[in-house]
Amino acid sequence: PLRNRRSDIPLLVDHFLEKLSILYGKTRKEIKPETMHLLQAHDWPGNVRQLENLIKQIVVRSDENIIYDTLKGPIPSQGRKGPFFEIDDDDYTLKNKVDHAISEVEKMMITKALHKTNWNRRKAAVLLDISYRSLLYKIKDYKIID
Question: Can you list the domains of the chain with their CATH numbers?
């Protein structure tokens, strides 16, 4: 399964971008590093065919933001079990688990909003219905943009 070969995803994406750009007569697109990270973090229940179909949509529509509409819901980070945390770690307190889960979702939503607005932070703040200063603080806190 593709989820067990995450390191192959950049090679497959590159292959599909090249192949499908030629097939559809489109200019070859480059995938941003943040987007590649999302692709590598996704679970890929549909395996390689699902990845190819997603890349096909990007090529045909010329819109990398399709990824964020397609890969809905929280996407687990590489190496984690479940969407937000491992059950068998040392810290079992509910408050810490909830705080961590909220942070993960918040970071994902900010990243998605930034992608949808082509990294325009003011528009992303409006989309998220938070102040621009709050967004800047969260971007720095979550290290989304250095």
Answer: 1-72 (1.10.8.60), 77-146 (1.10.10.60)
* Cβ partners under 8 Å of residue 80, min gap 6: 86
Query: Cα–Cα distance between 97 and 115 in angstroms, integer?
Result: 27
Dihedral of alpha carbons 110, 112, 118, 123, sign: negative
pLDDT score of 135 more than 90: yes
Judge residue 64's burial from the number of C-beta atoms within 10 Å of its C-beta, 0-12 exposed, 13-18 middle, 19 or more buried.
Answer: middle
Q: What is the pTM of this model?
A: 0.48
Distance CA 24, CA 132 (A): 40
